[in-house]
Write a structure and sequence with these properties.
107 residues; OB fold (Dihydrolipoamide Acetyltransferase, E2P); 7-stranded mixed β-sheet; 2 helices; 37% strand
Length: 107
């Protein structure tokens, strides 16, 4: 799994530049939407750093190469009680939620 996360970090860091913010959350639920064509991880806590209208939703396009991996990480966090840590640009919104730049599991 580490081999799959490393390219995500490398690809995303170029797209998200210096405006990156980092926060960790407990997972409330994980899902996918045909209406918005996104996958999402909704969190228990609200993000204090995002400017997006839904400060508990973190999203990726459903056809993103890493969408399945992100969903699996969200489900793992929900099942184990671990938190997900997101790195994101607080101004990059996707269907009301914050667009995920980087995600990892943390204690």
């Amino acid at each position: 799994m580490k081999k799959l996360i490393v390219p995500f970090v490398v690809l995303s860091s170029a797209a998200y530049g210096a405006a990156n913010q980092k926060e960790a959350f407990h997972v409330d639920f994980v899902g996918a939407s045909a209406n918005t064509n996104t996958i999402f991880i909704n969190t228990v806590e609200s993000s204090a750093l995002t400017s997006c209208s839904d400060n508990k939703s973190f999203r990726l396009p459903i056809d993103h190469v890493l969408a399945k991996i992100v969903v699996n990480m969200g489900m793992a966090a929900k099942t184990t009680g671990m938190r997900v840590e997101f790195i994101f640009d607080p101004t990059q919104c996707l269907s009301g939620g914050t667009e995920i730049g980087v995600v990892k599991l943390v204690d």
